[in-house]
Structures are given as C-alpha cells and as structure tokens.
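Notebook, p. 212. Picked up where the previous page left off. The plan for this session was modest: take the two constructs that came back from the sequencing core last week, fold each one, and keep the raw output in the notebook itself so nobody has to go hunting through shared drives later. Recording the first one now, exactly as returned: residue sequence, then the structure token string.
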Amino acid sequence: MEDIRLNVALLRRRVPNLTTAARSVGLRPATVSNLCTGKIPIGRSEVRTLVALADLAECSLDELLIRGEKIEMIETGIKTLDVFAPLAKGGTVGLVARPGMGQLVVLAEMFHRLSNNGFITILLLPEGNHPEVNDILDEIDITAQTIDEAYNEIAKIGTSKEIAFGADRSHVLTGEIQDLQDRLDSIGIDNVTTFLVDLQGEVVDDEVPYGPLETLWQFDADLAARHQFPAVNPIYSTSSLLEGAHLDQTHLSIQQRAKKLLRRYRELRSIVNIHGVERISEADSQTFKRGERLEAYLTQPFYVAEAYTGKQGEAVSLQDTLNDIRKILDGATDVADVKDVSYIGKLK
C-alpha cells in the first residue's frame, strides 16, 4: 500500500461538508482529515472507512484511491514547512491559527517566495472589514473581489504559469472555493496551489477546519507567545507528501527522529519550567538541550519582516535543513548557545 493515497481533490469536489458527512456515516472527522493529509497512511486505515468515504463521494474504491502517482513538492526554503509539512504543488493547504499567531505573515512570505520563483499570486479578498490584510497586498499580483473575478483571472493565465491562490475561510463556508475548484477542473486547469486562512480564528476548534486538504499548517500558541516564529507546530502539522514514496527515506527518517525529540522536549520543558533542569536525569537533560536547540533552529528570518526585525530574510534548502537537523540530533550543537542557533539560516 506504499504507493496508494486518497484522491483528496475528488473528495473535496464531491463531499464539501466533510465533517457532517463523516459523522453521518459513523466516521470520526479527525480520522478522515488525517487520512487526507497523510498523517494516517492508507495502509493503516480500516476497509470500512475507505468504503464509507467512497460511498460519500459516490465513487468506486478505484476512483478514491490513487496508485503510483507521485505528488510534486514545492520547496519553500522555510525550514519547518519543508521538513515537517511540505507543500504539495497544485494542492490545497490550510493554515489553522488564532489571530496574532502570524498566519498572514507566513502567507505573505509564501507569496513573496513563490512570486520570486515564477508563480502568479492571486488573493480573493475576504468578506467584511479586515484591515490586517492590507499588510500583505504588496506580495499579491492580482486581487479579486468575487469568486467570478478570481475564476476569470485564473482562466486568463491558464496553464502558462504556476498560480498561488489565497482565500479566507468565509469563502469556504459559502461553498465558493469548491465551486471555483470545480470550474477550474472542468477546463483542465490544475496548476493552482491554494492557501486557505481563517481571519476569525474559528478553525482552531474544528476537527476538520476546511474539508479535505493536502497540507495542514497548525500554528502553536506557545511558540507565538515565546516569539518563536514561524509559529507552525512541527509535531501536528502534516502533509500528504509524507505518505507513500513521495519523499525519500532520509527525509522521512530525520523528520521522524526530530518529531520524537520535540515531543519529549515539550514534556520535559513543562517539568523544567516548574522544578528546574536539575530535577531531570542526565539523559533527559541531554534530550532537553537538543530539543531546545532544534526548536530554536526552526525559527527563521523572513524577507517580508525585514523592516520590522532588522534581520535579513533567509532561505535554506531542504538538503541543508536536513543536514543541520541531523547534526542537532546527533549532538553537534550541544555546547552552542541557544541564541547562536536562533533566527539564522543554516548552521555555520
């Protein structure tokens, strides 16, 4: 089952309200969401779950399951995203955050980087009054007031360029995003990578915040409060690229080791904050030290924030990031000051 994945695009078209639909047939929405993003591999899913999803989508299992098709990754140069929740080209990514966690900064940075790599960036303006959106307009090539405007702009570009398209959840709830994706699919346009944000911060409390997604970036209140940006949680963020043979085994191995370290570090951090580092064992102290440095290393200066931080933006290749994380896991930075690995590009 290693080369099999869910046809998320088909699910998105056929089952717009996945949360309600999944519950109606006895499925846990969170399980379905995890299957879509690859957090739960198809090989570990129950047959009844797959059959129920096929019934909901009114398709056969052969249509629901895609075999042997490799998903292409967009390398962003953002360390946390590339390693823990890589971006699938032509897929849909959902940003799950409350206001103040930096989701619009991440969106602006993504558009900035993708634009520099030849993408056309389009933003469907949100409904209501959201002045904070004005801060990211410099990174947008085209803005659209309505879904029809967005469709016309994308249709004009066609397949001549890769497109990065952003929209607020308000347009998801009305069904407009599904309608747009259906219309684009009907004319053979599959070069649109979609970014969904939630300016109200309500998706944090939903099991399936946007419906089927290829990638989920879960923001973390604790990281944001400690100014560890981008505050994307490397443990709970995920991507369908992590399922099957879409990434090489070195990437997957290092990612799993890093997640294991960060999980244990977070447990130990709670103890250390109350009782001090002297209350944990020598082995746990080493784990704590490495987790602290890995978390610090995953911070990164952004190009769009240079005027505010005074730090030059940094892009780090996936290979350099994986090599650096391996060094941290193996103890090469144990004697380094945490500040020396915070808000840098790659390790010196």
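Okay, moving on. Second construct, recorded in the same format:
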Amino acid sequence: MRKVAVANKDKQSGIAVIEFTAVVAFFLTLILTIIDIGMYGYVKLTMQNAVREGARYAVTGQSGLDPDASSNREAAIIQKMTNSSNGLFSQVIEVDEIRVEDLDGNAVTGFGGPGDLIAIHLDCEWATSSPYILPFVDDGTYKFTVSAAMKNELF
C-alpha cells in the first residue's frame, strides 16, 4: 500500500511540472507580445519624428549635412532623417522608397524647389516576432506610413 501512494505522488508531481510549463509558456508569449506591440509604437513614433525633422530641414534649402560634403541637398535631408531616427532608418525603409509629393499627390523631384508645398512620406516595415500578431499583419511585418508636409522657404 505504501508503494502505491509513493507512485501516485510521483505522477502528480510530473503533471504539475507539465501544467506549470504550459502556463509559463503562455504568459511568456503574452508578455513578449506586449513588448512587441510596444516596440512597434516606439518605432512608429521615432520614424514620425525623423520625417518631421527631415521636412523641417528640407524647407530651409540647406545642404550642410551631406555626408559627402558635395552640397547635395537630397543626401543632406536623408542624413537628417537618419540622424533623427535613433538608428532605425535603415532597418525600416530603403532610401529609394521615400516619396515626395505635392499637395495634389503628384511626385516631386528631389524635395521640391523654393516656395513649393511638399509632403514627405516614408513607407516603413517593422518585423514582428509574436505568434499572436502574425494573423493580423502581412508577411510577418507591420507596414505603416509616416508623413510630414511643409512649405519650402524661398531659399
């Protein structure tokens, strides 16, 4: 009789470990999902700030931030957005995917001329790692657009 009681206790102990593992796995995945959503929010706000700073720089007509020091205004504006993105710019967008449009939605070459009204759009992607979010996003990535519109000064 004593041996049967010990055997049952060992089985119950094993079941408790399995239940604990299942519950911990669920809650850990839930916590990682919350962190994933928080990171997405951080990335989106950071990129919104980067495009706004780039637009503010673009309206002045300056080119001092050009990394090649060749007074290339477009490169200087992209560098300003890169500097303002906390290192996220190259992770969420390719440079050739930057859209610059006038207020009617027509493409503008460069970042517009003096007095032009421009809107800069960055079509970004951020990968998700949460299995709970995968059914709600395409190809496992958050896709979002951040924009800023301003009028160029008479530079």
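Notes on construct two before I forget. The beta strands are 98-101, 117-127, 141-151.
Flagging for discussion at group meeting.
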